[in-house]
Write a structure and sequence with these properties.
Shape: elongated
Number of helices: 6
Radius of gyration: 18 Å
Structural class: mainly alpha
Length: 82
């Protein structure tokens, strides 16, 4: 039973990380990063729209993984119980 709960937690984690990576790079908090003040080279990279798009793409990949895991949920646990 614990295995099913961990599986569900993993799916929720995939969706949460995916949504975070899709939304956060386009928010104002992304620009106000303390690390960017110390390393101006990173500021050039992090504020580039192509980099933000790449991070958003990782977010979509996490959503796809979460959806795939939901789709394979029944098949995974039928194999383990049999």
């Amino acid at each position: 039973m614990l295995s099913k709960a961990l599986y569900a937690l993993y799916v929720v984690y995939c969706f949460e990380v995916g949504l975070f990576l899709i939304v956060f790079p386009w928010m104002e908090f992304w620009n106000q990063n303390l690390l960017l003040g110390y390393f101006p080279v990173l500021q050039i990279l992090f504020l580039n729209n192509f980099f933000r798009g790449a991070v958003t793409g990782l977010g979509f990949a996490n959503l796809v993984v979460g959806a795939w895991e939901i789709g394979s949920y029944r098949r995974y646990f039928q194999k383990r119980e049999a």
